[in-house]
Amino acid sequence: MTIGFIQYSSELLFPLAAVILGYRAIVAEQVSGSLKFILSLPLTRGEILLGKFVGRTIGIAIPCFLAFGIITVIGILQYGLFSPLRYLGVLVITLLYLAVLVSVVTSISTLVNRTATAAATLFIGLILIFEIAWEELVTVFYYLMTGIQVNRLDPPPEGGLFLLERLSPSGAYNTITNWILDAGNSASIHSQVLTEIQPGSTTNILAVETAFSPESVPLYLHESVGILILGLWGLVPLTIAYYSFNKGDLE
């Protein structure tokens, strides 16, 4: 319960914190003209981009992980001791999840020319689509691609459907942390997954254990693939931003 609450809190708060504290990272200094002054120093554009990314990741991580420490103490008092290895594993993946979100936010801030555009793109794209509405959009996308209507209370054993749900940053994060917590193979938060996999229980959660027989689970639905998905979310936007920022002209 204690480790799982860290999972739930991170999925809920990290995207919002990353957007609020990071959407102005590059674009605000470019609009104000202060970026030209920074570039007059012995710094490359890549170093500036990396510094913005690292600085904002640390800036968000410190207060959040201090809060996790308080949650941990309360959890130990209420629920008792837990596996330190699982706890450490969840914290490491949580830090990776935060870094991925900051990478996306910093990259968008680098690619646009106005702070309002950065804010709108991130709130609509990252928070609204990928964090809030993604679970519902998955069934819509799957129907458009295959023509198959999906009843989430009785989902078909289709690997593509389950893969789609874990393609969002939070979906990949939940999949990995559920694996560490031994809470089931799903992109939903651990408490919902544990309810879904109980005998006789039916929810709208997509859990591999209740849809597939053990021998029919596609390899790409293994929980470790979530690490690859998170890695791509972190590296691809930052790489695109680096090449655009390095070659672009400052207005």
Structural description of this entry:
72% of the residues lie in helices and 0% in strands. The protein is mostly helical. Helix 5 (84-111) runs antiparallel to helix 9 (169-181). It is globular and about 65 Å long. The chain starts with a helix and ends with a helix. The mean pLDDT is 92.
Count of DSSP H/I helices: 12
What structural class should be given to the helix and strand makeup?
mainly alpha
- Estimated radius of gyration: 20 Å
What is the share of helical residues? over 70%
Q: If you average the pLDDT, what whole number results?
A: 92
Q: How do the SSEs run, as a string of H and E?
A: HHHHHHHHHHHH
Q: What is the rounded distance between the termini? A: 51 Å
Largest sheet: none
Shape field: globular
The total strand number stands at 0
The proportion of strand residues reads: under 5%
Low-confidence stretches: none
